[in-house]
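Morning - NDP inputs below, output right after.
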Amino acid sequence: MASEAVYGPVIGGVESVEPHRETAELLDPATNRPLARVALGSAEDAARAMEVAQAAFETSPWSAGDGAQRAKVLLRLAQLLEQQQEEFAVLESRNMGKTLRESRIDVGYVVRTLEYVSGLADKLEGTTIPVPGSRFNYTVREPLGVTVHIAPWNYPLLLAMRSVAPALAAGNAAVLKPASLTPLTAVRFARLAKTAGLPDGILNVVTGPGGRLGEALVRDKRCRSVTFTGSSEVGRRISVLAAERLVPATLELGGKSPIVVLADADLDRAARGVGFGIFGNAGQMCWAGSRLIVHESVRLPLLDKLRGLAEALVLGPGTDDGVEMGPLVSREQESRVLDYVGVAREDGGTIVTGGAKASGPKLADGNFVRPTVVADLPPASRAAREEIFGPVLSVFGFRELDEAVRLANETPYGLFAGLWTRDLAAAHTLARRLEAGTVVVNEPPLTFPQSPFAGFKDSGLGSEQGVAGVASYTRVKNVLLNVGLPKKKA
Ligand code: NDP
């Protein structure tokens, strides 16, 4: 039997894959055959990563030094990653299941994020503030110290680097815990960072279970901020732990995003956009457009187009040529999605297409679920309200705009909303009324490293990306100097 590659924590620039370590087997989601082994870190590994990061923060020129030097290293890292885009994309697809096309886009996004934040590394400026008397008041932006980043499995490298990259640009030392199911590209990225010249200890990766490692990282007295992306349940827990330690927590949690299609929309474009927004990444997206809210006058034609599109999608292993939708990340995720389809049926939903595990020569052993469209679902059904995290779209009709807004906002979440219309006035009015951190008109879910990304309501706390995303990894120090001469004695 060929021995599987072993990946392990990277702490202080050294990867620990000693034979005595406890390891877990990772399965290829397309076949459920062994893919690699990963060392399971302990609470001691977490403490060591925090200690090493703190030491690097205190002693390396990274934090105290010139932002322009940090920019150079981050740019070099972007270039190296771009050169290795294909290798990273293949590894991501094999580990997570997504198609190669999707993984290439993800890695490209990380390259662009590194380029973007590198441009800000030497522009973290303070201000001068007028105050009375012969005083000089100014502020400086300092890095926070050791920042903790806990990442999910749906965009393993992209969502990890969305917070790690700005934290590094601001001069922090980062400790990253990738999801247990998908740690491979994070470990490989840490190796690449060393090659790019990132000082040892400035980026550390710990692999292993979140309950054990993640909590230990947040509880550690050296943790100065935590950024978490994942389920609302764990997000709440992290928020409590962070509050106990009085450190800021940025949370990017789930969604049940509405896509509103008005009667005047270009239906072909809308169908493609809605399809991409729910079947992309096999629906495993925090901002998946999982609730289609469509004007009654175009509901049936749009449903027809969506059915055609869903049934034409080519399913298969993410690394195969021509595949348009890969498997779900794990057997558990597959069961979870199929359970929700069962709930939709029980609650009176009509399965327009899909609704079952996919079969076929290359699909039988993997975690493949057919792209699914459900109509006639009561809005109160759990399947209509809870995040499914799979390729399952629920469709609701409306007649009046107020009804569309009510349906769209009738969810605890507020991450993303999509809108399809040619009417500019309606677009602006609805964009204002939809309770979502990002509203996209006439496009599938789309964002850029320079655009803010935040969840409203139960979808999160704080904001990522953009200039403010880098600034959020700094603290503002106010310095007041009395520069006046002593008063003359009378
Ligand atoms: P989790 O929220 O459980 O996991 C996200 C990350 O947090 C992982 O790295 C996980 O580690 C870690 N973690 C888990 N428990 C703790 C803890 N107590 N303290 C600190 N860190 C912890 O998401 P799941 O992967 O279990 O997915 C469950 C559901 O969450 C999905 O089906 C989906 O609904 C939602 N989700 C949303 C995402 C988003 O982008 N908003 C992304 C992923 C999931 P480990 O992997 O070791 O458990």
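Note: The pocket of NDP is lined by residues 150-154, 177, 179-180, 209-211, 214-215, 229-231, 234, 237-238, 252-254, 286, 387, 389 (CB under 6 Å).

O.
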